[in-house]
């Protein structure tokens, strides 16, 4: 199984429009972050987490031409506002693509993007998704997917576990009942917004603390703002912990070096 970091930025991306700060002006490509999203692939299966607003450029960059399913963590714009560009996959595949999320997110998607859940038109000129409330494990060939409820401040949202890897973006706290779903991980991908405390996201110190408690064999931090310079924070992270960057590919499992 391979995980591709499509995007590793927070809601505004990095660089932030009009920002003169050193990170936004940095020439380091690892400081250039599109909105947070991953692709999980094994064999011919491609599973997307979050159709964010940078979906089109991310898919072009990685050469993705097929999606088996889309998982949505929550309804915030930086995680769903690329939903219209899923149309390209409907057009290529000539089929409805299944979309998985919790009940609140499915209801909100139906409200905001009702045309995506209407019966497909014959020319596939609109995105065409089928809605599925994810309450239990599901499987795509060798990829087993487990929903992991977490708290994004006061908003309950979903993280997802894919075999021995888990993706927890936009998280502030993890209930004890979900900690048991995060045992024995080869890879944990975790929210790490900025140095300063935030009401709905993990700060750097909180992310390090939660990563130590979950104790995956490898932890990669994501969903970072322009406060975080890749080289500066990377240099201070303990072994087994690192920062994500757009375009990073990680192998997980049997043949992987994770
Ligand atoms: Zn977000
Ligand atoms: Zn900046
Ligand atoms: Zn959010």
TrEMBL record:
Domain Metallo-beta-lactamase: 34-223
SMART domains xrefs: Lactamase_B
Residues passing through the membrane, by range: none
Superkingdom of the organism of origin: Bacteria
InterPro entries hit by this protein: Metallo-B-lactamas (IPR001279), RibonucZ/Hydroxyglut_hydro (IPR036866)
Signal peptide start and end residues: none
PANTHER family in alphabetical order: HYDROLASE C777.06C-RELATED (PTHR42663:SF6), HYDROLASE C777.06C-RELATED-RELATED (PTHR42663)
Name the record gives this protein: MBL fold metallo-hydrolase
The species this protein was found in: Thermithiobacillus plumbiphilus
């Amino acid at each position: 199984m391979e995980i591709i970091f499509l995007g590793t930025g927070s809601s505004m991306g990095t660089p932030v429009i009009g920002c003169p700060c050193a990170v936004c002006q940095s020439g380091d490509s690892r400081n250039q972050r599109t909105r947070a999203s991953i692709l999980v692939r094994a064999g011919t299966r491609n599973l997307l987490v979050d159709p964010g607003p940078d979906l089109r450029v991310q898919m072009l960059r990685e050469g993705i031409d097929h999606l088996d399913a889309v998982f949505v963590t929550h309804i915030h714009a930086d995680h769903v506002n690329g939903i219209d560009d899923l149309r390209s996959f409907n057009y290529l595949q000539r089929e409805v693509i299944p979309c998985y999320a919790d009940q609140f997110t499915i209801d909100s998607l139906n409200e905001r993007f009702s045309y995506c859940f209407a019966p497909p038109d014959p020319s596939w000129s609109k995105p065409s998704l089928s809605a599925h409330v994810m309450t239990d494990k599901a499987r795509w060939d060798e990829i087993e997917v487990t929903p992991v409820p977490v708290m994004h401040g006061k908003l309950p949202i979903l993280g997802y576990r894919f075999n021995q890897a888990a993706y927890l973006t936009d998280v502030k706290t993890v209930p004890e009942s979900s900690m048991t779903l995060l045992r024995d991980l080869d890879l944990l991908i975790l929210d790490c917004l900025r140095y300063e405390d935030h009401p709905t996201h993990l700060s750097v110190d909180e992310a390090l603390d939660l990563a130590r408690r979950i104790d995956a064999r490898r932890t990669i931090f994501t969903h970072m703002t322009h406060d975080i310079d890749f080289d500066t924070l990377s240099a201070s992270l303990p072994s087994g912990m690192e920062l994500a960057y757009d375009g990073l590919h990680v192998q997980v499992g049997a043949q992987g070096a994770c």
